[in-house]
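sorry for the late reply, my laptop died twice this morning and i had to redo everyting from scratch. anyway the thing you sent over, i finally got around to it. pasting the sequence first so we're on the same page, its 311 residues, then the predicted structure underneath. double check i copied it right bc i was rushing
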Amino acid sequence: MGIFVRMRQIGIILLKGILRLLSLLPLKVHYALSGFLTFLASDVLHYRRQVVDINLARSFPDKEYGELKQIRKQFYRHFGEVLAEAVWFGGCLDYRRLQKQRIAVIDNPEEFTKLYNVSPSVIILTSHTGNWELTGGLTFYSYDKAVPEFNERNVKVVYRRLSSKVWDKVMNDNRIAPLTDKAHFDGYLESSEVLRYAISHKDEKNFYIMITDQYPYEIASGMKVNDFMHQKTVSIGGGAHLAHKYGYSVVYLGMRSESRGHYSIHLETVCEDARTMSVREIMDRYYELLQRDIEAQPWNYLWTHKRWKKI
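ok and here's the structure:
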């Protein structure tokens, strides 16, 4: 074993150990700490302040400066809370602690069952709203209504591997905190592997979760959409292409903030058979639903990234 591999393993152990210790603190303590970090990021370091201001001004052209400033303030507070929640739930070894907190609740879990029954597989298109790190535990967030017929092994989370192998491993472990059987979860798919996986597992019914509001990276299939937040947009289109090719259902997943530490997840079917729509129509509908949710809660979105690059 090379020295770099050993150092990487030591780094993973140290980071996970720190997260475990921090996660022992009550969530309200994490929120208190996040308030200080929010102040540093927003008012002292001005973390990506220019990007945030430009994104907000272009996305809400009818709002006055004072309104945009208030949204920015609310966004940074929300951003700090998301980080606090990630540390808290990422170090949890017992999923029942998360269950007690009810950090996320699916409004209509029966939609999962309906799509599971009518489709070979399901593409779930989602975004950086709410706390997007929670999506790996979707089968966990139905408390009052059981979701039958499938379990967490049917959920596949599509992601882009981080350049740091240490942080990649730590963040992947964080995202599966709600799962009851973390040790045997094999549902992480690097974005470049999705098509190959879908073909080799075409006889299995799976839910593929894809965050689909990023500007396309080099290996991603990009496409123009009509409009997103009043701007010309190029988006990753791999999920819609995959669904259209194999006749999968497509569902939009939104995550609203109900109060601090509580999110509601809602599912809206875009199509039960993606072959009945063009890829462009699927993406336009997805961005229409996403824009509706952002306009309802403007601060509940990750504004620090350059999602609208020059076309």
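Residues 104 and 263 are 5 Å apart (CA to CA).
thats about all i looked at so far, will dig more tmrw
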